[in-house]
Amino acid sequence: MAQSVATSRSTLDRWRGASWGAFRSLWRRDEHDLAPQAAQELSASLDSASDTGRRLSEQIEASEDSQTLANAASICRWELLILRERVLESEGSSSLRTEIIRHLDDAAAAARTLSSGYRYHNLNRICDGGQLLDEHLQALAQLRARISRE
After folding, report:
1. pTM score, two decimals?
2. pLDDT at 89 exceeding the cut of 80
């Protein structure tokens, strides 16, 4: 037993003998390391978010009834929250998922503000909610473009 202890490598010797790739694997992986299936799932969710925003825009352009527009914004919020749950269940980079979830949460909050503005005829809420919703949907579209490039 004394002989095996004397001939065993120290922890420092093991670290010196490790390859550079082993050290890199210790660091957090970036979103560049998305598996193809995970990238496809996230891309599909981001495409759905874009479609949700497009449908809301079409309904806003087509109708002038404030109750109809409030309902459309509420449906948009509901769809964004469903997409949020889908992203939570998906595989992939935690930093990228966290960023997507944050934008989906903020977009859903903006849709709620927009719905409230239409429901109670508050122009400030309509403008603020619409602007914030557009900003977060644009950020999600940029994330989609970044995933497709990789």
Report:
1. 0.76
2. yes
Give the pair of three-digit tokens for residue 95.
Answer: 């930093």
pLDDT of amino acid 148: 84
Structure tokens given for 114:
């927009």
Tokens of 105: 């949460």
Domains of the chain: 33-149 (1.20.120)
When mean pLDDT is compared across 18-27, 98-107, 112-121, the lowest value belongs to: 18-27
3-state secondary structure labels for all residues of the chain: CHHHHHHCCCHHHHHHHCCHHHHHCCCCCCHHHCCHHHHHHHHHHHHHHHHHHHHHHHHHHHCCCHHHHHHHHHHHHHHHHHHHHHHHHCCCCHHHHHHHHHHHHHHHHHHHHHHHHHHCCCHHHHHHHHHHHHHHHHHHHHHHHHHHHC
Rounded CA-CA distance 121/14 in Å is 69
